[in-house]
Amino acid sequence: MRILPVLGTFSLSAALLVAPSPALAGGSAPALGPTATGYGGAVSTVDPTATAVGLDVLRRGGNAVDAAVAAAATLGVTEPFSAGIGGGGFFVYYDARKRSVQTIDGRETGPATMRETHFIDPADGQPYDFAEARVSGLSVGAPGTLATWESATRKWGTRSLASLLQPAARVADRGFPVDATFRQQIADNAAAFGQFDSTSSLYLPGGAPPAVGSTQRNPDLADTYRLIARQGTDVLYRGAVARDIVRTVQDPPVSETPVGTWAYPIRPGTLTLSDLARYRVNHPAPTRSDFRNLTVYGMSTPSSGGVAVSEALNILETAKLSKADVAKALHYYLEASALSFADRNRYVGAYTPQPVLKRLVSDSWAQQRACQISPTAALTKPVPPGDLNATGCTPAAVGGPTEQGQSTTNLTVADRWGNIVEYTFTIEQTGGNAMVVPGRGFLLNNELTDFNFTNTQAPAADPNLPGPGKRPRSSMSPTIVLQDGKPFLALGSPGGATIITTVLQILLNRVVLGQSLPEAMAAPRASQRNTAGIQAEPAFRTTYGPALIARGHSFAADVPELGAATAIEFTRNGGFIASAEPVRRGGGAAGVVHPAR
Ligand code: GLU
């Protein structure tokens, strides 16, 4: 998020957890760059303050889970438009002692009263415009982030959640420097934020986004974190904070003196106190697939990330790909992405039966899908989803459109014992539903807009329509890769449905094209989600466009950037290569406990 000079040996005040830290006091941010190599543990996030907090927990003997939760709580302060306790996410954990991968599904959950027509305007029978649905109470699911932190620390951590919230509370109190990304995210949301005094008083001081370099404080959020520390997470699911969430959803705190105008009515939602009280995290088994000598673990439903990444990797494995022919490898990457998106759209939602998921990640299914790919001529997009009952290449009916989000944040942590956390969490759009819960300092999610508003797969069934107490399908793809049974790579990214292709492309760059991890992260990206034109960063199109167009691919309009990934690679001698974005979203912050000299 903030670009700052890279430093060799980074040291944040060890007193961070117990006493004011000069490094974080009013307006200065610790300096950390996009790559760090060394020993003793590693942290990669989009933000130097969050990375510093995570490193400090590791230095003081905490494990990867402790550090991840402390860093995540800090991101709730410094990246409030991407993530926080008003949202949800997916937490993937590698336990070094047990040599097993476990997950937490902390996805937001729709109200018990939600029906398939949730986003249909009763006045005219038409679906709401996305923006109207987003900035409303209708889009808010019961948040899962705090329950995720509690579950992770209880099951696998060594510190209390209460203690892990303290550094973030101090950052919220003291403030942090506003950078260009933070300011821009507010500017992009000014019309929506301006409708709610609780949001505009925090993020539109004097009616405009704060100046770059000014200090952003959030004392209400500091108080909320401390209240949770004192009373436990129940305060957000059953207590005073729960009541404030429900009031905000059911009676949106629309300003009598808004800043700017909003084109839509701001509709109330139906989330209730019992929906919050009923919220539970789940612990689904991770998805698992093999690619060459690697075992790839990902997030299962309600995320489509693990299934789609696995299917695409399996398809890639059917071709002989290597760095000797980059254009061929990218051609297969784009074809494999399109095919797996067609299947994801048709089959994957919160309630997809296990046998279907198993089939989609199987090698035999990959063969059936891959046999359509020609090495020289691109398939016409959209490609139809595969027919689960077929035994050959026969496809079924035409696929539906793909959605795309823009927000979310990702972090990767490893500790000296070899435990790993890969965690992606979100409030959906940048700025969530635009409503800061009055007096509590955090934005609510608009995650329920990840449901399809109408059937995209007709005449077939759409697996991602709203339903009572249902979780919307996600694309979040926190991924942990083992090589010969030992940790090799952990990675994840934000970016809505492009998350799947970003994770896939980084794996392709690293494993097939033989790039170093920092090269694989920096390389220009493209995303083919089963649409006519490939969405690509300008550098991808100019570098690889001619060779791909010659194979029959076409490009949609360029997008400035795709994703904001974080990753850690595990070296053979027990070291870490922590990697964050060098440029995208203003650049991320990677750090290690003991830097290599
Ligand atoms: N809500 C999206 C998902 O769960 C993530 C949003 C984003 O990364 O932009 O897939």
Outline of the structure:
The protein is an alpha+beta fold and 597 residues long. 32% of the residues lie in helices and 15% in strands. Helix 6 packs antiparallel against helix 10 and helix 14 (305-317) packs parallel to helix 18 (498-512).
Mean pLDDT: 93
Poorly predicted regions are: 1-27, 397-404
> In terms of quaternary structure, what is this?
single chain
The shape, in one word, is globular
Structural class: alpha+beta
Largest sheet: 12 strands, antiparallel
Any idea what the radius of gyration is? Answer: 22 Å
Strand content is: 5-15%
State the end-to-end CA separation. 26 Å
In total, how many beta strands? 16
Spell out which ligands are present: glutamic acid
Describe it:
The protein is α+β, with helices and mostly antiparallel strands. The chain has a domain at 79-281 and 406-450. It has helices spanning 48-59, 64-78, 130-134, 145-156, 161-164, 166-174, 180-188, 190-193, 197-203, 219-231, 234-237, 240-250, 273-277, 305-317, 326-347, 354-360, 363-370, 498-512, 517-522, 538-550, and strands spanning 35-45, 88-95, 100-106, 176-177, 215-216, 287-291, 294-298, 409-415, 420-426, 479-483, 486-492, 526-527, 535-536, 566-570, 576-580, 589-595. Strands 1, 2, 3, 6, 7, 8, 9, 10, 11, 14, 15 and 16 form a 12-stranded antiparallel beta sheet that branches. Strands 4-5 form a two-stranded antiparallel sheet. It has a two-stranded antiparallel ribbon with strand order 12-13. Helix 6 runs antiparallel to helix 10, helix 14 packs across helix 15 (326-347) and helix 14 (305-317) packs parallel to helix 18. Residues 1-27 and 397-404 have low confidence and may be disordered.
